Fold this protein.
Amino acid sequence: MSAATVGTQPRVWTRGEVGTLLLILAETSFFGVFLVAYLFYIGKSLHGPYPAQVLELPILATLCLLSSSLTIVLAVRDLERGHVARFATSLLATILLGGAFIVFTALEWRELIHEHGLTITTNLFGTTYYSLVGFHAAHVCIGLLLMLLVLVLAVFGHVRREHAFRVDMLSWYWHFVDAVWIAVLTVVYVVGV
Amino acid sequence: MNGVTTPSIFDASSTPASMIVEYTTLVLAVCGVIFLVVGSLIVYCIIRFRARPGDDLREPPQVYGSGRLELAWTVVPVLIVVVLGLVTARTILALQKDEPPPGSLLVTATGHQWWWEFEYPQYGFVTANELHLPVSDPADPRPSFFNLRSQDVIHSFWVPQLAGKTDLIPNRENYMWMEPLEPGVFVGQCAEFCGTQHANMLLRIVVQPRDEFEAWAAAQQRPAAADSSAAAGREVFERTACINCHSVRGTPAVGRFGPDLTHLMSRTTLGAGVATNDRANLREWIAHPDPMKPGVLMPAMQLEPEQIERVVDYLVTLE
Amino acid sequence: MAAIDQPVTSAKPESARAWTDVLHEWVATVDHKKLGILYIASGIVFFVVAGLEAAAMRYQLAFAQNDALSPEVFNRLFTMHGTTMVFLVGMPIITGFGNYLIPLMIGARDMAFPRLNAWGFWMFLFGGLLLYFSYFGSTGLYGAGSAPDVGWFAYTPLAGKAFSRGNATDYWILGIMLSGFGSLSGAVNMITTALTMRCKGMSLGRMPLFVWLMVVVSFMILVVLPPLTAAQVMLLFDRFLGAHFFDTQAGGDAVLWQHFFWFFGHPEVYILMIPGFAYASEIIPVFSRKVIFGYAVMVAATVAIGFVSLGVWAHHMFAVGMGKGLNIWFGAITMVVGVPTGIKIFNWIATMYGGKIRFRIPMMFCSAFLMQFLVAGLTGIMLAAVPFDWQLTDSYFVVAHFHYVLIGGLLFTIFAAVYYWFPKMTGRMLDERLGRFHFWLFIVGFQITFSTMHVQGLLGMPRRVYTYPADRGWELWNLITSLGVVFQAAGILFFVWAIVQAFRRPQPAGDDPWDAWTLEWSTSSPPPDYNFAELPEVRSRRPLWDLKHPDDPDWKYE
């Protein structure tokens, strides 16, 4: 039960849930514009490198990120039942999987920059690719930082069963970040190639 | 300056502008009726239902709504919108052209900060800021069809008496057409904010009877006059930075950044309309263009007064 | 629903408290009422600044070929005037009234996220100050610094690095982006509060229309402000990182900026105007002594406006050379959005019809709003008529249209709202006589300036010009337009004086000076920090009507 309800009328939603959903709505709109720009500029670069030449479907990275959604669901469930140690473990797994995604992204970018000479200024593909994938990665990093904060607090014994709701809200953000990745994956690595 | 009339959109002198006026009359009529009906209702309520001093303090009957009334005042506006929408669609289809109508004079207009470049591809010459067009006779139409481009930022070509406006956008080809029906001088200007001197990117269109237009075009086709009395000035012109930006056909000056000067004296204004085209202004323009058009991209040429005088002598021969 | 007699804000009476205490209380507050007042007051200050910018421009334009202002200065003025009025006046005032009134109207003690609320206000203020710092601080190529000068919508390529050197445009981007966080946080707060914190008995169908409309506005903010942020980030990347989003040399599209900007920009003007509708929807019933006609339809119409407004953006772009299909679609859908808007006007008229209208200052402003918004809506239909728009767009006709909407519509309702709720916020009335001077001077000035301004557009005068030729027949109209400014300025002076006088010579307001019906009038003026001694319970949309008319309560008829 959360302390987020105020007033005496029965609620369908709590403050935290509504707030988190609204944040996700705004972020969806933000990413939508970058996706539209990417789609609009497909095939319009004046010169290469072109997507088909340099992009490879990031299967492993995707698997890591998507399974991290699974682990965070387990983490929240563990915390709701009061199993703080198990919660911390699942949370750590989530962070590591998300971290792996970032590492894979970094490796991909290193190859793009050093071996293919693709940067944000190279052509329209470079411009739209780095901004879209970059903003997504930044949102992953923010999620990782927040989860790390929670993990540290948990390790020091400050996280208890009654905080499960708040971690649940964080997990909603994390699922959103995953959903955005599916959109980015489709647009960049499937449609745009 | 010479014979310019107020560029009212209702003073149409060309087929697309007239079509717009006709369409506009319907729109204004509909809006006028709506204004009278709704406006008088508002005024009526204000007058009829004001609280009077002797009134008792009882509240008037509370009316929460009326399904029938609300349906009526939804359906009527929807019908108005449907009718207007259909008429609008028909007018758009009639007005918008992506291809030159048969018999068209072709002009390529390129927008620059803050002047207009006009090329007549059918005749093979380039001029600036002032445009000549032939009158179109309904029996033997000669409309004018424009390709619109830009060299830098977005501009917009607007001569209200001749057509609605269309933007000139870099890396994009836009089209517009006009069909002038009467001779005259028609003014307009750039209608999309394009920087410091957006306000002084003026347009001047001279519509002439067919034969006069052909004569003008033939004169424009000729290379620059080579008047020997102006040889000294021509030498200054061709030896200094002038030729980096300006073209004078038939001479080594082939610069494209600034307006073509081959037939400079056939134009009535300088600087896209900021000053009349005469000796004094020419001299001032070469010496200090910025006070005449603050922010203009032509630099002060740093010439000696003597040199400027010679250059002006040369320029006034470019008829 | 008993209200406490004395508002308890601190232990000591105001006069005995150190000014540092008072300052600290206001700077550190998370109370929705104080934040609301801070937002509104900031909006009014920026309004005066932007008004001075406008007055300077009208002075320059009063005569053809006037040289009072250089083109560089003029171009900065119109950019800053527009940017300020939209982002630093309109947005904070609507956030301010929303913040102040929503918890009171729904019987809550504060907004859902008080600290987020405070953060939003200070971000807004910082963003606004950053934008104005550009007048002093912007560096760059000699002569290319200072305030932004690319217009409030900053079209590319003009706003790109090549044509906008120095950092002026960057101040525009960052100032707006930061102050936008204030609007976003306000929107999150307003929706969450309205959805989760209503008092007992207040179903969604019993919320005051004001709250409904602010919820719709807040959803719109959340959907359309991020695209502006995204477009501005893209412009920032172009300007600083060498990206090519709007770089035509690299194959980029100059018009893409316009699509993104107006996808935000058009709903933005509804975001600005709908709160005006919200004020009118509370004020007109109270002063007509009648319940709002067609509550459900008013909600439905507003929701419809919210959705449809997302599909009309390219009606700002009829001259860019879109294909016939797109022009037809955007023209038609723009006319369609006029239908729910028109319906609202009819509902307000029907509310007045059969009433006993008391023409106190708020109602005077609302009546003028009705007439003027009617005109504004009709000139909007004219602009939606695509071929007509090909003449009118980018001319002074458009300037006249949107000032009719934003001044004749929004500002008049804001004035109404200030006169109506100032007593609740401060416990003092604004003087009726001064209010009448304000009203008449301002409406005369507004009409002189903006009615004539349509003529200049019809006579071919484009917008954003620092001067114009003397031989086009525009000078007399421009002079008349500029003269109207004098009356408007005088009206504003009376407005400011009325506010000052309310503090110097207070006329106590009491809890419910207007004999109104919503919950904010059931508590003291100003309300105590905790709003209500006991959280209320309601049975209808007009709880105070029910209390005052126990024989004839609303819940029998709703």
In short: Confidence is low (pLDDT under 50) at residues 1-5 of chain A. Residues 84-115 of chain A form the longest helix (32 residues). DSSP finds six helices and no strands in chain A.
